[in-house]
Specification:
With about 400 residues, the chain is an alpha+beta fold. The protein has two domains: about 260 residues, TolB, C-terminal domain (Neuraminidase, 6 Propeller); about 100 residues, no CATH class. About 25% of the residues lie in helices and about 35% in strands. The chain is built from five helices and 21 strands. The strands form six sheets. Strands 3-4-5-6 form a four-stranded antiparallel beta sheet, with no helix packed on it. Strands 7-8-9-10 form a four-stranded antiparallel beta sheet, with no helix packed on it. Strands 11-12-13-14 form a four-stranded antiparallel beta sheet, with no helix packed on it. The longest helix is centred in the C-terminal third of the chain and has 33 residues. About 30% of the residues are buried. The site of one 2-acetamido-2-deoxy-beta-D-glucopyranose (NAG) has 6 residues, from loops. It is found in: Membrane. Keywords: Membrane, Signal, Transmembrane, Transmembrane helix. Its main location: membrane. This is NHL repeat-containing protein.
């Protein structure tokens, strides 16, 4: 097998939320491809792969290649797919013995395990065998339900619910959007992630990215909805992560990364047109969108108000300058500079979250106000020196 590469994406952010520049850097080379990545609290990565890799690779991305190592093998498995953190430094994994001829797990070989990194030597524990599963793929937790795990089955097109403390499992969520396309075998539901009151999913061979509202006990509380449709003939969508602003970063075969925003839809496309500026309306938006997005909205509002507040001074300065017949060059330079500074002002206001950088905006405001006063004073001086 050819060596495969793991690359870590670094976001250089102009501001939080602006995905301005993406820089890709190679961190290490591993002997097999990577199915899934989990990040430990110490920053180390846990990497899964299948088939013919019966243990987890670990890697410190700050150190790179020399830090790559392997944990002890998982009994009865030659491959690991999903991985997710179930409690601090305890990770659950989906493991199986994959047939080297068909590539599918052998009957009865699929199991959920946990790895506890608390003790000096990590402790492996088998939780439960999933005898009715065919191909476990994505694995995730439910906020507020620490004993439950959800696992997608790409062949069956269902999400299994696993109780870690009881060592039991059943089908938790079922939807036609999870199903693999015909003819079988084909891979349907792949990556899954919970966020808020929804489980998000990617259907690999159908190119559907969607979500289902769920309860704390992992039952669907409403209908599934499609958030994005990727052309499955061009790209197959796989696992993904959702950042704090609600953007899903979706890995796609063979070589793409999709960024799918869940924000607009997280608000259910609701816009209160009856009372768009009501205090209650604002409170409603505040509850429905991530904090960083709401703060940006507040800064937009503040910038808008500042433009309105400065408008009378601007209009006054222009009228006075014209009445006093200030020369065209002075007027053009003053208004051009003023408007240019105002545009920069809005950009600074909307994008700056750092307190120290925010003084740039204040400086900009002082400069633009000084221009208007210069025009007014010039106009006053000219009028005072003329006979009326
Ligand atoms: C997987 O199954 C095959 C066939 O039954 C068996 O020979 C092999 O030892 C199994 N692998 C592991 C890791 O248990
Ligand atoms: C695996 O199990 C399924 C259903 O339990 C059965 O239909 C199938 O024949 C089995 N396959 C093998 C290779 O034993």
């Amino acid at each position: 097998m050819r060596p495969h590469y793991i690359a870590v994406l670094f976001l250089s952010l102009l501001s939080r939320g602006a995905h301005a520049t993406l820089r890709v850097r190679q961190v290490a080379t591993l002997p097999s491809y990577i199915e899934n990545i989990a990040v430990r609290s110490n920053g180390h990565l846990l990497l899964t792969s299948f088939p013919t890799t019966s243990s987890i690779y670990t890697l410190d991305p700050k150190v790179g290649q020399s830090s790559v190592s392997q944990l002890p093998p998982i009994e009865g498995a030659n491959g690991i797919t999903g991985i997710t953190e179930v409690s601090p430094d305890v990770f659950a994994i989906a493991a199986a013995n994959f047939s080297l001829t068909t590539g599918a797990p052998l009957n009865g070989s699929i199991a959920i395990w946990t790895i506890d990194f608390g003790p000096k030597i990590p402790v492996l524990r088998k939780i439960v065998n999933l005898n009715s599963a065919l191909l476990l793929n994505g694995l995730t937790t439910i906020p507020g339900s620490p004993s439950l795990l959800l696992a997608s089955d790409s062949f069956l097109g269902v999400i299994f619910r696993i109780d870690i403390t009881q060592s039991t499992y059943d089908v938790g969520i079922q939807d036609t959007l999870f199903a693999p396309p015909q003819p079988l075998p084909n891979v349907g539901i792949n990556g899954i992630r919970t966020r808020g009151k929804h489980i998000y999913f990617a259907n690999y061979a159908k190119g559907v990215f969607g979500r289902v509202p769920i309860s704390k006990t992992a039952s669907a509380t409403g209908a599934a909805e499609v958030l994005a449709q990727v052309d499955p003939l061009k790209y197959k969508i796989d696992d993904f992560a959702i950042d704090e602003e609600g953007n899903a970063w979706v890995a796609a075969h063979p070589n793409a990364l999709y960024l799918i925003s869940t924000i607009k839809n997280a608000n259910n496309k609701k816009w209160n047109n009856a009372n768009p500026r009501g205090i209650e309306t604002n409170a409603m938006y505040q509850k429905q969108v991530p904090n960083s997005v709401f703060c940006k909205y507040e800064r937009c509002e503040a910038a808008h108000k500042n433009l309105l507040e400065n408008a009378p001074l601007y209009v006054g300065a222009i009228v006075l300058g014209n009445v006093a017949r200030l020369d065209a060059l002075t007027m053009n330079v003053a208004t051009g500079l003023y408007l240019g500074l105002r545009v920069v002002y809005v950009a600074l206001y909307v994008n700056t979250v750092n307190r120290r950088l925010s003084y740039l905006r204040t400086l900009n405001w002082v400069a633009s106000t000084a221009i208007l006063f210069t025009v007014i004073i010039k106009a006053g001086n000219k009028m005072a020196s003329q006979d009326w």
